[in-house]
Amino acid sequence: MNIKKTLYVVGAIVVQNGRILAVKRGASKNAEVAYKYEFVGGKIEEGESPEAALKREALEEMDYSIEIVDPFMRSVYEYKDVIVDLMTFICKPLSQSFVLNEHVDSKWLLPEELFSVEWAPADRDILQALSAVKF
What we know:
By secondary structure, this protein is mainly β.
């Protein structure tokens, strides 16, 4: 029996002017997430709080400073080779601009536009909940 590893990750639901930031991954060894949109974020390192991990990831991935406003939702998704335990937070930008260091595209989407792009599967439950929220 093969026991899958669980990855504990965080995602920033960055909201500005009623729109939510989506960033698109590039090539990946995991075809389930390659070239799909996701929230800014990543793995929580050992001894790191989810909030600290989220701020670090935004800086590493995009040279982007964010303020965490509220926890939003937790979702667990089982991929073919790994389980992703994702904790998301509503955030607001502190920087005026960002650089895509690890992504190939970005979009600011209204809640009703969230499903106009293809997202990583682990984000889909969160998107469903977000599509009903007015910012």
